[in-house]
C-alpha cells in the first residue's frame, strides 16, 4: 500500500501542506529542525491514532495557531491511501476549543475526530486502514526501557492488523479500571464486595484472549526477526528470540534476567493453547483469587496482561541486560524488518516504511540489508540531514524532497 497524497493543516510546524507522494523510496532531507520527523509523525499518527513523541495530543497543534485568540483551533491530517483493493481517504481532526475569560486566563478543551472517506467513524476504525512500520533511533529503548514501552509497542503493532484484539484490549482496560476502583473501596472498608466477582469474571475472560493473542504475536514476530537477524545481519552467527513474559504467574515484582528461562514454559504453554481460552481463564481466575488479599491491600490488580513484558534473548541471554550497543541496534533493525514481513504475511500487503535518521547509524552490511528492504517495498519514507551518505545507486531510485521550515520541495534529479 502507499500514500498518494498527504495534506496537513496546523500540525506541528506545518501550517498548511499539500504533498503528492510517489511510490518507491522517498528521501526527505534538510537541516535540523525543519519538519522531517514531524512529517513521519503525522503519517504514523493517522495510521495508529498515536504519536510516538507527544504525551499530550494537543501538543501536536501548530503553536502559532494556538496562540491566536480564536475560539476554535482545528488541526487536520488527511491521507489518500491506495491499496491493492481500493483507494481511501483517512482523516484525523484535532480540535481545541478555548474560552478566554476577562482575566485573560484560558480554558481549553480538546477532542479528536476520525473520518474515513469523509464519513465520521470511531477513532479505532482508522486502525489497520493504513499500515506502517516506524523505525526511530530511540527504538533501542525497547530493549533498555520500561515494560510499559514494550507493551505499547506490542499493542500498537498488533492493533494495526487485528481490530478484534484492539477492541478486547480497550474493554479489558475499562474493566480493569472498574475492578481497581472497587479494590480501593474495599481497602477503605466500603461494602462493595458483591460487584467484585462480576468485574473479575469479565477481566478473566478478556485478559485470557489478550494473553493468547500476544503469545501468538510474539512467537510469529520472533520467527521473522530471527530469520533476518541470522541470515542477513549476522551471517549465521547469532540467534535471537523474542520471549513473552506474561504476567500469568504468582506475584513476583520483576523477572530477573536469570529467571527468564522458566517463563519460556509459560509462553510456550500459551502458544500451544491457542483457541483454548477456557484453560487460560481457569489459570488466570485462580491466580486472581489467590492474590485477592494483596490486590485489596494495594488497591490494584497485580496479575494480568496489563503487567506483561517481553524480552529479547541473544543466544539464550537477555539482550537488554547483556548485549553490546551494536548488538542491541542490530536486534532492533531485525525486529523492524521482521515487522514488515510479519505484516505482509498477515495482510498480503507490504506496509509503508517510515525511517527516521536510522540509516546513518548502521554499518555497511546492515545499511545494505535495510536499503534492500526499502527498495523492495511499495513506499518507504526516509529522513536524513545529508543525502550524501546514500549510495548513488540508491539516490537514483529515490525521490528526493527537501524540507525547509515546514515546506517541502521536490528536488530535481541530476
Ligand atoms: N506544535 C508545534 N508547533 C509548531 N512547531 C513545532 C511544534 N512542535 C514542534 N515544532 C517544531 O518543529 C520543528 C521541526 O521539528 P522536527 O523534529 O520535524 O525537525 P527535523 O527536521 O526532524 O530535525 P532534526 O534533523 O533535528 O531531527 C522544530 O523546530 C520544533 O521545535
Ligand atoms: Mg528529526
Question: How would you portray this structure in words?
Answer:
With 414 residues, this protein is an alpha/beta fold. It has 2 domains: 2-131 and 350-410, P-loop containing nucleotide triphosphate hydrolases (Rossmann fold), CATH 3.40.50; 137-329, RecF/RecN/SMC, N-terminal domain (Glutathione S-transferase Yfyf (Class Pi), Chain A, domain 2). 43% of the residues lie in helices and 24% in strands. The chain is built from 13 helices and 15 strands. Strands 2-1-4-5-6-7 form a 6-stranded antiparallel β-sheet. Strand 10 (309-314) and strand 11 form a beta hairpin. Helix 6 (196-233) crosses helix 7 and helix 6 (196-233) crosses helix 8. The chain starts with a strand and ends with a strand. The mean pLDDT is 92. Adenosine-5'-triphosphate (ATP) is lined by residues 12-13, 30, 32-38, 59, 61-63, 385, 403.
Amino acid at each position: 500500500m502507499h500514500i498518494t497524497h498527504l495534506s496537513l493543516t496546523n500540525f506541528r510546524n506545518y501550517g498548511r501542506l499539500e504533498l503528492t507522494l510517489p511510490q518507491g523510496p522517498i528521501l526527505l532531507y534538510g537541516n535540523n529542525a525543519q519538519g522531517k520527523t514531524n512529517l513521519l509523525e503525522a503519517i504514523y499518527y493517522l495510521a495508529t491514532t498515536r504519536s510516538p513523541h507527544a504525551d499530550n495530543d494537543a501538543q501536536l497543534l501548530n503553536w502559532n495557531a494556538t496562540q491566536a485568540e480564536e475560539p476554535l483551533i482545528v488541526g487536520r491530517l488527511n491521507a489518500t491511501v491506495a491499496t491493492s483493493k481500493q483507494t481511501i481517504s483517512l482523516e484525523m481532526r484535532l480540535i481545541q476549543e478555548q474560552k478566554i475569560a476577562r482575566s485573560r486566563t484560558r480554558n481549553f478543551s480538546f477532542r479528536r475526530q476520525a473520518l474515513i472517506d469523509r464519513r465520521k467513524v470511531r477513532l479505532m476504525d482508522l486502525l489497520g486502514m493504513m499500515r506502517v512500520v516506524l523505525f526511530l533511533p530511540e527504538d533501542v529503548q525497547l530493549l533498555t526501557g520500561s515494560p510499559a514501552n514494550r507493551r505499547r509497542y506490542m499493542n500498537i503493532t498488533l492493533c494495526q492488523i487485528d481490530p478484534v484484539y484492539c477492541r478486547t484490549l480497550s474493554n479489558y482496560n475499562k474493566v480493569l479500571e472498574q475492578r481497581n476502583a472497587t479494590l480501593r473501596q474495599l481497602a477503605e472498608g466500603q461494602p462493595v464486595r458483591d460487584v467484585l466477582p462480576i468485574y473479575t469474571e469479565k477481566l478473566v475472560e478478556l485478559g485470557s484472549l489478550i494473553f493468547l493473542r500476544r503469545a501468538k504475536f510474539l512467537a510469529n514476530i520472533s520467527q521473522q526477526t530471527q530469520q533476518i537477524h541470522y541470515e542477513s545481519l549476522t551471517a549465521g552467527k547469532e540467534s535471537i528470540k523474542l520471549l513473552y513474559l506474561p504476567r500469568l504467574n504468582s506475584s513476583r515484582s520483576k523477572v530477573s534476567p536469570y529467571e527468564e528461562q522458566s517463563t519460556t514454559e509459560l509462553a510456550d504453554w500459551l502458544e500451544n493453547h491457542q483457541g483454548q481460552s477456557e484453560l487460560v481463564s481457569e489459570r488466570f481466575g485462580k491466580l486472581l483469587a489467590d492474590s485477592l488479599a494483596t490486590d485489596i491491600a494495594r488497591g490494584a490488580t497485580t496479575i494480568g496482561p496489563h503487567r506483561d513484558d517481553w524480552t529479547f534473548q541473544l543466544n539464550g541471554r537477555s539482550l537488554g541486560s547483556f548485549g553490546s550497543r551494536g548488538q542491541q541496534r542490530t536486534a532492533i533493525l531485525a525486529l523492524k524488518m521482521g515487522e514488515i514481513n510479519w505484516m505482509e504475511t498477515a495482510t498480503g500487503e507490504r506496509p509503508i516504511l517510515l525511517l527516521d535518521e536510522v540509516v546513518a547509524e548502521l554499518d555497511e552490511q546492515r545499511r545494505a540489508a535495510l536499503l534492500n528492504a526499502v527498495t523492495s517495498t511499495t513506499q518507504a519514507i526516509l529522513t536524513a540531514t545529508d543525502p550524501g551518505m546514500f549510495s548513488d545507486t540508491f539516490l537514483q531510485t529515490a525521490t528526493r524532497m527537501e524540507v525547509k521550515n515546514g515546506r517541502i520541495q521536490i528536488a530535481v534529479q541530476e
